[in-house]
UniProtKB/TrEMBL annotation:
SUPFAM superfamilies: Thiamin diphosphate-binding fold (THDP-binding), TK C-terminal domain-like. It is an enzyme of class 2 (transferase). Mg(2+) binds at D144, N173. This is 1-deoxy-D-xylulose-5-phosphate synthase. GO terms for biological process: isopentenyl diphosphate biosynthetic process, methylerythritol 4-phosphate pathway; terpenoid biosynthetic process; thiamine biosynthetic process. Binds 1 Mg(2+) ion per subunit. The keyword Transferase applies. It catalyses: D-glyceraldehyde 3-phosphate + pyruvate + H(+) = 1-deoxy-D-xylulose 5-phosphate + CO2. Its EC number is 2.2.1.7. GO terms for molecular function: 1-deoxy-D-xylulose-5-phosphate synthase activity; magnesium ion binding; thiamine pyrophosphate binding. It comes from Meiothermus granaticius NBRC 107808. Pathway: Metabolic intermediate biosynthesis; 1-deoxy-D-xylulose 5-phosphate biosynthesis; 1-deoxy-D-xylulose 5-phosphate from D-glyceraldehyde 3-phosphate and pyruvate: step 1/1.
Amino acid sequence: MILDTVNSPQDLKTLTQSELLELVGELRSEIIRVCAQNGGHLASSLGAVELIVALHRVFDSPRDRILFDVGHQAYAHKILTGRKEVFHTIRQEGGISGFTKVSESEHDAITVGHASTSLANALGMAIARDTLGQDYHVVAVIGDGAFTGGMALAAMNVIGGQKRKLLTILNDNEMSISENVGALNRYFKEYQTRKWVQDTQKWGKQVLEGISPKLFNLVDRAKEAAKLMLHQENPFYAWGIRYVGPVDGHDLPGLIHILEQIKELDGPTLLHIVTQKGKGYGVAEEDPIYWHGPPGFNPDKPEKVSKGYSWSAAFGDAITELASSDPKIFVITPAMREGSGLVRYSQTHPERYLDTGIAEDVAATVAAGMGLRGLKPVLAIYSTFMQRAYDQIIHDIAIEKVPVVFAVDRAGIVGGDGATHNGVFDIAYLRTVPNLQIAAPKDAYELRAMLKKALELQAPIALRYPRDSVEKVPEGTWPSIEWGRWEILKEGRKAYILSFGKTLKYALEAALDNPEVGVINARFLKPLDQEMLAQLAQGGYKLVTVEDHQRMGGFGSAVLESLSGLGLQAEVRVLGLQDVFYDHGSIARMHAEAGIDAASIRAALAELGLPAQMALRDLR
Ligand SMILES: Cc1ncc(C[n+]2csc(CCOP(=O)(O)OP(=O)(O)O)c2C)c(N)n1
Ligand SMILES: CC(=O)[C@@H](O)[C@H](O)COP(=O)(O)O
Ligand SMILES: [Mg+2]
């Protein structure tokens, strides 16, 4: 195995071309083997293997900074940069991250997981390099999906204006998680099919063979001048960025050659490479959507597995049904059709469905525009990605109470994706926004009831639910709900656990067999059910609040603030996530570590003088 001899990128420098090609195959096998075990971002990583080998052959990491947007395509980079022995631990508890992470390796230039940040980061590094009088290369690798993000496009604008030496590699596989969308995607597709583009590529390749970097510079300038006439409408030229491409991103010798040439060029350059998502693994090439981030599978007999009935599916089914009888409903996703459970909706109501690409900010403001003009927009968005739309939520939606319903998925700790993807800030950042209501259903029945009612109320309302499975509800079931009222799930004589959503199960478990302790489904997080809260305080009940969200600024804080506002006192324990970032790993274990699981609730109750009546349970 060539891979056995490669312990750092330096080891690539001495390999022959055929050894490098062999290495590409070995890397693919290793990526497939480990993704089969752990799950992971398979298709994206398979598509970037040649590029990563070429980059480490030509550039000199960690001196040169190589930035991977999202970081989900960088598995080969991890293996080649000293992590092959631990690669099998990727995304596992205590193992390496599924994305690049500065604290994990000196070769990881940025900590990432959210899309479209690489270019601004790269520009910052280029500015730091120039300001400090240093000399190294900065290379940003960004996918066509991540390129649809406003951050990437706005950074391009600054990069073009700055004219600093910086290489952007656009890894174009025509896919985001689902098919990529938008005008640039259309442009690139069409651009590649033009005969003169293909001819110039061939010509360019021939001319480039065997010429010195100096001469290349001259040829490049001449070519550039010629191209400028042809490429009149090329957006990169308009931005003042040298465009090279499109080139075959799986032609390793070709890539190495072109990178060696481009490396010498001054100013900002964009290399456009064309790759295939899932390259080298039949099933992933055929269905890169499923194999974007599959759970574990049998590598010899790769089959799709059902991930069970998820909250996302429950939302998707409910909104599909609702939209069938309400022509004003319009659903928006920022590039998360599959993850948000919207495949069925997008097929049933294609005329009332919009994928904005990775542009959460735009998605929120598009929803605002729709809401202002008579539609009932529903923005399906992951809690973690909604962070990108905070200003829009305040400025474009909340101030004027524009009726936008937010279906906030992946709320809480998410597991394998780790700190960048945990949806643990949304209550804190949303509850400070006036006019915005927040609710969290306990099951799919409540989700349906809340969604229907939220659309009737015509107000900005966020419904949050976790990355989890949920019991399916028969079609046509539309329970009603008393809006704003909490629900007593179990009566208690001395204390109540207030919780909602996923952590209700811990609350029920902790209160089981303990007649002193009751459980309340505190499903309305803003506004809180002040009436019930006042009754609890006035009744002298002790309270424990539990949430799968940061303790600071979350639901428990809201309870304390409300009590203070009501001029009431109660003995309260607030259980929530600690003031730290939670990495990838087992959700249950992290809940235990954070102190929000059933055992932690019991401990909090014991502190309040309500020890669990374990004897009863243990006797059974
Ligand atoms: C801000 C943000 N929104 C959404 C996502 C979810 N997401 C992760 S990868 C991806 C698609 C990226 O497509 P591309 O950059 O072309 O990479 P590919 O998977 O095709 O290699 C999306 C939408 C994210 N990581 N960050
Ligand atoms: C890299 C990225 O952001 C997505 O691929 C994400 O990992 C999807 O998460 P889910 O699996 O929860 O949809
Ligand atoms: Mg792509």
